[in-house]
Design a protein that fits this description.
By secondary structure, the protein is an alpha+beta fold. The protein has a single domain (2-128, 135-511), classed as Cytochrome P450 (Cytochrome p450, Orthogonal Bundle). The protein is 51% helix and 8% strand. The protein has 24 helices and eleven strands. It has helices at 2-14, 24-30, 33-46, 57-61, 64-71, 75-86, 103-109, 137-147, 153-157, 160-178, 190-207, 213-216, 221-226, 229-239, 242-251, 258-276, 284-294, 302-315, 318-333, 335-348, 357-360, 364-376, 410-414, 460-477; strands at 89-93, 96-99, 185-189, 386-387, 393-395, 398-400, 405-407, 478-481, 495-497, 499-501, 506-511. Strands 1-2-7-4 form a four-stranded mixed sheet, with helices on both faces. The protein has a three-stranded antiparallel sheet with strand order 3-11-8. A two-stranded antiparallel ribbon has the order 5-6. Helix 1 (2-14) packs parallel to helix 14 (229-239) and helix 10 runs parallel beside helix 24 (460-477). The radius of gyration is 24 Å and the shape is globular. The protein starts with a helix and ends with a strand. GO terms for molecular function: heme binding; iron ion binding; monooxygenase activity; oxidoreductase activity, acting on paired donors, with incorporation or reduction of molecular oxygen.
Length: 513
């Protein structure tokens, strides 16, 4: 990973003061670099089309403060602080605006003309095929058409057997630890165990074979590579400066990409093996295969299947681990809420066999806890950036010129006092007592943890099934507490690199029965 440190160092020492609207090579060619930087910073601050919007002056002058916050793992926190100071519309870079006004969800994400900026949709080196993140409009629609049926409510019901199997394996493994060495309790890192579970589930559903994480009680090498989200953000940062990207790629040795190549090779093998045989149970790939048979004119190539299934596996695992560990973190910090959830769980089930996708969906307090968790611990806390289409657009009543970047940041929006009462407090009851005076001003339209529109998360039904089943089985089987002498850390002490860089969550488990 030494190349990452090289990139980081070069970013810090070589691009300070560079405007998004210019390239260093032009400045050097003119032998007026200093004047070039100053002129563009001055232009950005006072004459740029977005100069009329409020925000920190330095953020409006250069992309550097934005990149610095992003690479330090604090960007969503900093953006929220800017909204707290300047209001619901904030300029966070020379050509970028952030919105916490709930109307922006509709104005930006329901409009098909808003597409992801190319900088935020890049592909790994050596990968030619697009996925749903990097794809142009036409290919994105084609990919969604192929994968959407796999995540329908009907299709998801057929995945319950798989989710139940790995959830039960998780419980069995944890029970083994509680009786190890003749004891009654065990202290485990729940982040690790939940990651094992969610990766095994989505691996089995996506590729017809799991990663063996629960079986081997360790991460598969493939997972270790794809979880380097900071590396992804470093690559994004470099793309803001094409001259630097070209230079770095020219000096990057092939050995620096060896781990990535192994990961891509593993993906290729898993997809090839899955396409060569039919699994014993329903999975996601069967729907993609059916799509290719029905629509040969718009079928996905194997390379496209590999690229998209890789995105599905990452999105369908790490985000769920975030939600579940976030829920346990807040529950442990609020024993009263935890007690209410446990009582609901154990009052509704007389045996573990009764815990199913259908039965857990009927538990209002469980659903409220998960909603509040997604509000306070959104799996993707940053904004999903979109580029204003040709001709410009009106967002929250403001005319924004074409080419500008806009987004709604989940962290800043969900924790805004203009959208929610007591925004930083874990209050599941806000999702139950809609007519309570305490929450009557809550603007639920602001809450879109899965985004909205044609680019929203297609895996919501599966995500809800997994969250409900896994959390219900955990609290049915175990009394969960913080280990003696350990205070559960505040969730917000963790860094954010696209998603959360989760610290270990050590919990004490004691068998409830």
């Amino acid at each position: 990973m030494s190349i990452l440190f090289t990139i980081s160092s070069l970013l810090a020492t070589s691009i300070f003061g560079v405007s998004y609207f210019g390239h260093l090579r032009k400045a050097v060619a003119n032998a007026n670099a200093d004047q070039y930087f100053i002129t563009h910073a001055f232009y950005n601050a006072f004459f740029h089309p977005l100069a009329k919007f409020k925000g920190a002056r330095l953020w409006g002058m250069s992309r550097i403060p934005f990149i610095n916050a992003m690479l330090s793992g604090t960007l969503p926190f900093r953006v929220k602080s800017l909204h707290d100071e300047y209001g619901s519309i904030v300029r966070v870079a020379p050509d970028e605006l952030s919105f916490t006004d709930p109307r922006a969800w509709k104005d930006i994400y329901l409009n098909k003309s808003f597409i992801r900026p190319k900088i935020w949709g890049s592909r790994p080196p050596g990968v030619e095929a697009h996925n749903v993140i990097s794809a142009p409009v036409a290919d994105h629609a084609r990919f969604r058409k192929a994968f959407q049926p796999a995540f329908s409510e009907k299709a998801t019901r057929n995945y319950e057997k798989t989710v139940q199997h790995f959830s039960n394996t998780l419980i069995s493994k944890l029970k083994e630890y509680t009786v190890k060495d003749g004891g009654e309790t065990a202290v485990v890192d729940l982040v690790q165990w939940l990651n094992f579970t969610t990766f095994d589930i989505i691996g089995d559903l996506g590729w017809g074979s799991d990663f063996g994480c629960l079986r081997d009680t360790q991460y598969h090498p493939w997972i270790a590579v794809v979880l380097h989200f900071k590396a992804v953000l470093m690559a994004v940062s470099v793309k803001y400066y094409p001259w630097l990207e070209a230079f770095l790629m020219s000096i990057t040795p092939a050995s620096a990409l060896a781990d990535l190549q192994k990961t891509l090779a593993t993906t290729h093998t898993k997809v090839k093996d899955r396409l060569a045989h039919e699994p014993e149970h329903a999975d996601i790939m069967s729907h993609v295969i059916e799509h290719n048979e029905k629509f040969p004119d718009s079928c996905l190539s194997q390379e496209e299947i590999e690229a998209n299934s890789m995105a599905v596996v990452v999105a369908g695992s790490e985000t769920l681990t975030t939600a579940l560990t976030g829920a346990v973190t807040y529950l442990l910090r609020d024993p009263k809420v935890f007690k209410t959830l446990v009582e609901e769980n154990r009052a509704n089930f007389s045996s573990e066999d009764q815990i199913s996708a259908a039965s857990t969906a009927l538990l209002p307090y469980l659903t409220a806890v998960l909603h509040e968790t997604l509000r306070l611990c959104p799996p993707l806390p940053d904004g999903l950036r979109r580029q204003v289409p040709k001709g410009g657009a009106v967002i929250c009543g403001h005319v924004i010129l074409e080419g500008m970047t806009v987004s709604v940041p989940c962290w800043g929006t969900f924790r805004s006092s203009s959208n929610f009462a007591s925004p930083d407090v874990f209050l599941p009851q806000r999702w139950l007592n809609e007519h309570s005076p305490q929450f009557e001003l809550d603007n639920k339209a602001a809450f879109q943890p899965f985004s909205t529109g044609p680019h929203n998360c297609i895996g919501q039904p599966l995500a809800w099934m997994e969250m409900r089943l896994i959390l219900s089985k955990l609290i049915w089987n175990f009394d969960i507490n913080a280990p003696k002498g350990i205070t559960v850390a505040d969730w917000t002490t963790q860094k954010i690199y696209w998603t959360w860089e989760k610290s270990p969550l050590e919990v004490e488990l004691k068998r409830a029965r």
